[in-house]
Amino acid sequence: MGDPKKPKKKYSTPSHPWNRNRINNEKIIIKQYGLNNKKEIWKTNSKISNFAAIAKRLIRERRSEQAKQETENFLTKLTKIGVLKPNSQLEDVLDLSITNILERRLQTIVFKKGLANTIKQARQLTTHGHIAINNKKITIPSYLLSVDEEPMVSYAENSSYNNEEHPEIIKLKKDKQIEEVKNE
Length: 184
Known about the structure:
Layout: H1 20-33, H2 38-60, H3 65-80, H4 98-102, H5 106-112, H6 119-127, E1 131-133, E2 136-137, E3 153-155, H7 167-183
Antiparallel strand pairs: 1-2, 1-3
Helix pairs in contact: 5-6
C-alpha cells in the first residue's frame, strides 16, 4: 500500500553515481534544455524505459487480438504527444532517446516558438504563469505537449507579456529582426 504522505518515486537513479561520461552528458543536456536538476533527466529516462518495457511486452504478445489493440492504442498515444512520427512501428519505440521526450516539453516549445529569449527564461515564464495553452495557464515546464496543443501555446491573457509595449517583447522582436538579417 504505502504511506500516502510519502509518494512513490517515479524515477530510478543511475546504478553508478560517479561515471564521468554520464555526468558530462547530463551536464550538456541540462544546459541545452534548461533543466533544473538531474532528477528531471532521470524521470525522462524512466519514462523512456517504461515505454520500451511496454513495447517489448507487446512485441512478445503480438499474435493475440488484445495485444494488437493495445499496440494500436500505444502507438496512437505516442504519436499524439509527438514522440513518434505517424505510421511508426512498435520497434521504433525501442529507438527513442531522451531528446525525443525533452523536445516535447512546454519549456522547450516556448523557447523554440520565440516566446522567450533563452531556455531558462522559457522555464521562468512558464513557472510564473505567463504561458497558456488554449487560454489555460500551465505552470509546469515539464508538461508534455501534444501535437494538437503546440500551435495553441501563447502568452496568458492577463500576462504583462501579452502587451506589445513590454520591454522583453520589444527585445524579442529586435532579436528576431537581427536573426532574419543574418539568415539572408
